[in-house]
Write a structure and sequence with these properties.
The structure is a homodimer of 335-residue chains. With 335 residues, chain A is α/β, with parallel strands linked by helices. In chain A, α10 links the parallel β8 and β9. In chain A, the strands form two sheets. Chain A has a six-stranded parallel β-sheet with strand order 2-1-3-4-5-11, sandwiched between helices. In chain A, strands 7-6-8-9-10-12 form a six-stranded mixed β-sheet, with helices on both faces. Chain A contains eleven helices and twelve strands. Chain A has three domains: 39 residues, no CATH class; 132 residues, Response regulator (Rossmann fold), CATH 3.40.50; 130 residues, Rossmann fold, CATH 3.40.50.2300. Helix content of chain A is 41%, strand content 16%. Chains A and B meet through α4, β2 and α10 of A and α4, β2 and α10 of B.
């Protein structure tokens, strides 16, 4: 006869719920308790019943995609990637937009009970500041894959690009083009992707032997007008700045508009590079050098992992951390 | 006692299904039969039971949005408009992409049985050449609202912009800027929106007293490379062409690339205007004059109508044909 959770609970004089949470590495359970549970589980040769916890979520043939925004070239291409797999598998796709609002993300995730969806693909909002709602979803055994904007403390599959490397490549490109003072335009700095991009920027500056006076991180705002004013003030106030990295596309196109107003010539006086998936970056005036994320591939890979977990009950999402490289497209804005 | 469908069927010696279809103006029923049914229904003062046919579709709290593409500025903004209403109403939104494929549209619509969705918002694919699948959905009493790309022969709510007027405004703008030979770059010419835009073009030329030798409709292709080659051949072959209307955004940005290759200067040698929702049209080189559709508003209005029909069982979707005006944004490409 095989050992079950109940046997572990009885032996350790803990509740079944506690054992279950401990086995899932829940943050609600202390490290000491987790260790006791795992030790006994190993001793008694406990193997989890892969059916027990997953059965209730099968059968809707529907997955949820939760993302900040759809009117954005990265996310709309990622949806295309997700949909291409879902359609092939005969699944339906519910799309939820958080509009970068933490509260909205919480309320959306609450609705995934009762078998409405079989699995979730999630890119977290920029204002998400704590992760209880994600822990909860995870502990309910909802198959969950993060794409692009991940929550690092949740132990499940993550599909990203290497943002540190991309930030490094962007900065090094500007340095090679002769820039001496590069501003990093940041937004949503609590997101891991922003932190990583900025880390790459810092690494490249350090490698080039530049000191802190040459480092300039400009924190922009979710409100476009506020961001515009911030960028304008920075470029007006310090004419030494000869390079700009837009950590998101919008900040680079805003920089174009600010330069237009201030009569700063791109690329002669200021070189601009942006993280962007804009298909027509080449048609901007001047054409925009971009670090382009593999948006379609990220969506497709995330969906593929999720369906693998839905189809094979032993498939371990936790083991999957996939990184797909971004690419530098050099155009006139940095020439 | 009130008169029911069964009474009508008995009296006319027809099946209940035939009566039901005739009352719904189904294309499967001959005009003669419809007339007989409607005549008797009127005589006997038959009023349809609004609950009978609609009840089975309530309760999923889910609507479906079927559209050609999401990586497109018009449709992604329209989804934002739809989602803004759905979220407020506590509804879930399934998104389906046809990728402009007729067969895919048919197969998507088949899946809406069995209460999966309460209602459908639909923008038809450019390759949809007959409408049985739409008639079927309509006859099953599925609340249905068309947005942007409508099927004119289905008698339900439609939310559009006035494309004939918009085509007229675009053409008149080029004429006023001095253009003598204007090419209309067409795509998906079986779509009603394309036909209307072209009609506006023809109307404006006629009004200006231009004859058929000045009319030039260029049929482009869904394949980008083919379209590029077509535009290139046309602009190379006829240097008299001094104005271009891109009936979709992509054809205008392609025209930019072709002009770059052929060293044709915009706007000096060729003026370009496009139907476009591109937010950064102003940053193109040169900035692009656009006819901009009210994408968010169209999505929002379509969703609002659908929810009205879901909430009030007597609400008549058939009566709703809403047109929201497009706007001309004049920029350097036509100066």
């Amino acid at each position: 006869m095989s050992i079950g959770i109940k046997d572990l609970a009885k032996e350790l004089q803990l509740s079944v719920a506690t054992i279950s949470k401990a086995l899932k590495d829940s943050h609600e359970i202390s490290p000491e308790t987790k260790e006791r549970v795992l030790k006994l589980a190993k001793e008694l040769n406990y193997t989890p019943n892969p059916y027990a916890s997953s059965l209730r979520h099968r059968g809707s043939k529907t997955i949820a995609v939760v993302l900040p925004e759809v009117a954005d070239s990265f996310f709309s291409m990622a949806i295309n990637g997700i949909e291409s797999v879902a359609q092939e598998k005969g699944y339906h796709v519910l799309v939820y937009l958080t509009h970068e609002q933490f509260e909205r993300e919480i309320s959306i995730l609450k609705d995934f009970q009762n078998g409405r969806v079989d699995g979730v693909l999630l890119s977290i909002s920029s204002t998400t500041c704590e992760y209880n709602h994600l822990h909860k979803l995870y502990e309910e055994n909802m198959p969950l894959v993060f794409f692009d904007r991940v929550c690092e403390e949740i132990n499940t599959a993550k599909v990203q690009t290497d943002d540190t490397q991309a930030g490094y490549v962007a900065t090094k490109h500007l340095l090679e083009k002769g820039c001496k003072k590069i501003a990093f335009l940041s937004m949503n700095s609590n997101l891991s992707i922003t932190k990583h991009r900025m880390q790459g920027y810092v690494d490249a500056l350090k490698e080039a032997g530049l000191n802190d006076t040459q480092k300039l991180v400009v924190e922009c705002d979710s409100n476009d007008e506020v961001s515009y004013a911030i960028i304008k003030r920075v470029l007006e106030g310090d004419r030494q700045i000869d390079g700009v990295i837009g950590s998101v596309e919008k900040l680079a196109t805003m920089t174009y508009a600010v330069c237009d107003e201030l009569l700063i010539k791109i690329p002669q006086q200021l070189k601009v590079i942006a993280f962007s998936n804009l298909q027509i970056a080449g048609l901007l005036n001047p054409s925009l050098t971009t670090i382009t994320q593999p948006a379609f591939e990220i969506g497709k890979t995330a969906a593929t992992l999720l369906f693998r977990a839905l189809e094979k009950r032993n498939f371990d999402l936790k083991a999957e951390h996939i990184s797909i490289p971004s690419l530098l497209f050099e155009r006139k804005s940095t020439s």
